Amino acid sequence: MHAGRLMALAPRRTRGIALPLASASATAMAIALLAGCSSAPTRGPSTSNAATALSTQTSRAYHGRFSVSYTDRYGRPQNAYGNFDWQEQGDTVTLQLLNPFGQTLAIVTSSPSAATLELPNRQPLTADNVGTLMRNALGFALPVEGLRYWLQPSPAPTSQAKTIVDPQAGTRLKEIDQDGWTIQYLAYTDAPEVGVKRVDLTRRDPPLAIKLVLDR
Known about the structure:
Elements: H1 4-8, H2 24-30, E1 59-71, E2 77-89, E3 92-98, E4 104-110, E5 115-118, E6 125-127, H3 130-138, H4 144-150, E7 161-165, E8 173-178, E9 181-189, E10 195-203, E11 208-214
Antiparallel strand pairs: 1-2, 1-11, 2-3, 3-4, 4-5, 5-6, 7-8, 8-9, 9-10, 10-11
């Protein structure tokens, strides 16, 4: 995907979402949403055998809304809101972030061999991996690789994790604690297919809270 494409992207209609525009600094931080993972693994019972084998899945897509709460470099609380399109093809994830009016803020592409961040009116930024790219561009990294599994929902097979099953919903997961993140599943869909509807992700150090609503 070329940076020039961003200039040609027309505002797209959102699904009746009326969310406030984030500040300029919040928008810049929202670009890093869901990209990379550099946290140290947490200790806990291993549940990697429950992870989905992504290699058997050729493609996957999610569409929805996001909000991010974080503390900036000056210690000030910030918030960002918008919509997202997630396209997963094999080992490659392409994440498009949009403002509440449907205009593209950024496109993040992650694969095992490289990562690219495209911003409007700027040259693309590249690195060997998402974590390196985000650290170089914004000073921190966020968990795209983890989300590839957590949105299944399933713990990632790359590190130990602790899971909690919802006692009111049989085998559905209620919470995953992995790689310094707490992933809480607040709602599931039943039709046309079973899947995650609402998930909250939080991390203490540095503090970060992400809320996702999946419209699929």
